[in-house]
Structures are given as C-alpha cells and as structure tokens.
Amino acid sequence: MCKYCLECEWQISTSEGYSEKEVSEKAIEHFVETGHTVDSLRLPPPAAIIEN
To answer: How many helices and strands (H and E) does the chain possess?
Structure first.
C-alpha cells in the first residue's frame, strides 16, 4: 500500500518496511498537520520465490 499527498511530495509505502497500519497512521498525521488531501494506491503483492 502506498499513500501519497495530492498537494506536496509527501508519500509513504509498505515497500519501505512500514506495516499497513503504520502507513495509515502516518497518512492521517500528515492530513492533520497540513490539511492536505492524501490518496492511496494498492501495491501488487511481492513475487513468490519458488524453489525447485
């Protein structure tokens, strides 16, 4: 999951090691602090490693 601001360069993602809960909490904090609109994008799941 990726959350990003529609008004500035702010963004946060689970691909950076954050949990979905942390990403959501940080997005809410950004909105409360700035009043900026935050949108989200669901990332594809990581590729599975198949062992032969």
So the answer is: 1, 3
Segment holding 13, helix H or strand E: strand 11-13
> Number of structural domains, the chain?
1
Count of residues in the chain:
52
Q: Within 10 Å of residue 13's Cβ, how many Cβ atoms?
A: 15
Q: Domain containing 19: what range?
A: 2-36
Judge if pTM exceeds 0.90: no
pLDDT tens by residue, the chain, 52 residues: 899 999 999 999 998 999 999 999 999 999 999 999 999 988 666 665 566 5
6: in domain: yes
